[in-house]
Amino acid sequence: MAESKVLGPGAAKPRKPESHLAMVRRARKINRELAEVYPYAHPELDFENPFQLLVATVLSAQTTDLRVNQTTPALFAKYPTPEDMAAAVPEELEEIIRPTGFFRAKARSLIGLSIALRDGFGGEVPGRLADLVTLPGVGRKTANVVLGNVFGVPGITVDTHFGRLARRFGWTAEEDPVKVEAVVAEIFPKSEWTMLSHRVVFHGRRICHARRPACGACPIAPLCPSYGEGETDPEKAAKLLKYEKGGQPGQRLKPPADYPGLPASPASV
After folding, report:
1. 72-83 pLDDT, tens per residue?
2. What DSSP string describes 10-44?
3. Distance between CA 150 and CA 147 in Å, rounded?
4. CA distance 103 to 59
5. Cα–Cα nearest to 160, from 216, 209, 103
6. Exposed, middle or buried: residue 257 (CB in 10 Å: 0-12, 13-18, 19+)?
7. Distance CA 165, CA 63 (A)
8. What three-state secondary structure class fits 130?
9. pLDDT digits (tens, 9 = 90+) for 61-120
10. 141 catalytic, yes or no?
11. Which of 46, 159, 176, 258 is an active site residue?
12. The pLDDT of residue 267
């Protein structure tokens, strides 16, 4: 006789085949519950204006937001405007952003997008997706980050965390970020796109990790078809929690006033 699987506390029950309508209802309930878990969800890059957020988001590729936040104060002190960065000596710019990795390619993108802003947009970051994606180094993910967080234009930001959780939650099986964005956009009302992105990314960074998701400490475990991929023991799972959920500093040096955790250290590590 096959051994039956014993589910831990808060676990999702074995699921029957799910209709599309049922999936949409479950997805929207996940969003509502994540809103209660992370009412303070926000961009985890430090920025004071659209140009700073654009640059920081380009730098965030293949590194942590913390590393970017530790790097950008010196960067923006030297190059506060697109005009300043457009005139940068590549080697000097590269040296400043070296800690973020891929610094030569990123420096080319930053100088290129700064020249494009200076020459094509009067030194201002445009507020349209069609314009943003023409800038060197700027794809849909970066454009949606900028649009949603400085222009109030709803957008779904599909980074590695969002894509991973969208698949774990059973919203889509797509791997391509553009396809993931398109599928998820059909599930949620447009007004929810920006905050949905923050909540899902927060959850991916704090609880639903890539290698060892803390299933036993997950507040939405009953809604998740992937429960059991990670640690299900509540005590062991609690030790896997990161940032404010684990009693540790966050990624921002200057977090919002309602952030319940500690600010990150400005010292580069």
Report:
1. 999 999 999 999
2. TPPPP-----HHHHHHHHHHHHHHHHHH-TT----
3. 6
4. 8
5. 209
6. exposed
7. 19
8. helix
9. 999 999 999 999 999 999 999 999 999 999 999 999 999 999 999 999 999 999 999 999
10. yes
11. 159
12. 80
